Amino acid sequence: MSEEAFFNYLILSWFLLAFAIFISLFFFTAPYGRYTRNNWGLTLSDKWGWLIMETVAPLIFVIFFFLGSNPITVTTIFFLIMWEAHYIHRAFIYPFSLRGRAKRMTITVVVLAFVFNTANGYLNSRYIFTLSDGYTSQWLEDPRFIIGLGLFITGFVINRRADFTLRNLRKPDDSDYKIPHGEMYKWISCPNYLGEIVTWIGWATATWSLPGLAFAIWTITNLVPRAKAHHTWYHKHFANYPTDRKALVPKLW
Q: For the chain, what is the HEC assignment?
């Protein structure tokens, strides 16, 4: 089987699997963070869990950047910077900025996330740097790239600001959950998730590719049900939780 045929089968399967996972996550909340359960086997530190499962994404992307057969252009360098900006933070900065007493993460979750990041990193990097028709420097002037980059940066900033707000809710030795306030938390329970969704919709638009679209769909698949679960959890655990606050989209949902 040629790599092109393997790639096409994988991307088709990727879309179908995303649909199945999306439906299931409305009935089953992934067991990490506040939903960690003891019946999922061995665990490890959540900091090391994040590091292990996220590191593969920036590594595989930069490897295929250098192994790619398409010409390296200003545009492909832009894509590399965008991807690495997100994942270097997610793998090497975010886990060690978490406050509170040490928490645990199940190895099963780490393995599943590692597999996802490997496949997703392969699909996006291999397409951009080898299997696509190539991205010339003129692509930077295309409205799709300009709009996509704007969305990517907007989502990136929303996500970082929301994470910063959550971090500042706790002192270093405090692990209790509190109601976040300020910025986009005035309107929704999960601006961090909204930011990540906007980020990868921006990526899909800027790359104008099936792998980019698949990544955006997978982000929605994972985070929309989790935002709903978070919103319900807040209302269940805090009697004074703002009743006019939505889960993910201001004024709508």
A: CCHHHHHHHHHHHHHHHHHHHHHHCCCCCCCCHHHCCCCCCCEEEHHHHHHHHHHHHHHHHHHHHHHCCCCCCHHHHHHHHHHHHHHHHHHHHHHHHCCCCCCEEEHHHHHHHHHHHHHHHHHHHHHHHHHCCCCCHHHHHCHHHHHHHHHHHHHHHHHHHHHHHHHCCCCCCCCCCCCCCCHHHHCECCHHHHHHHHHHHHHHHHHCCHHHHHHHHHHHHHHHHHHHHHHHHHHHHCCCCCCCCECCCCCCC
Residue appearing with tokens 């990540």: 196
Q: What is the pLDDT of residues 191-213, one digit of tens each?
A: 999 999 999 999 999 999 999 99
Residue boundaries of the structural domains of the chain? 3-237
105 φ, ψ to 5°?
-135, 135
Q: What is the pLDDT of residues 60-97, one digit of tens each?
A: 999 999 999 999 999 999 999 999 999 999 999 998 88
Rounded CA separation 47/28 (Å): 24
61's CB contacts (< 8 A; 6+ apart) are 80, 83, 84, 87, 121, 124, 125
Mean pLDDT over all residues of the chain? Answer: 93
CB 188 within 8 A of CB 250: yes
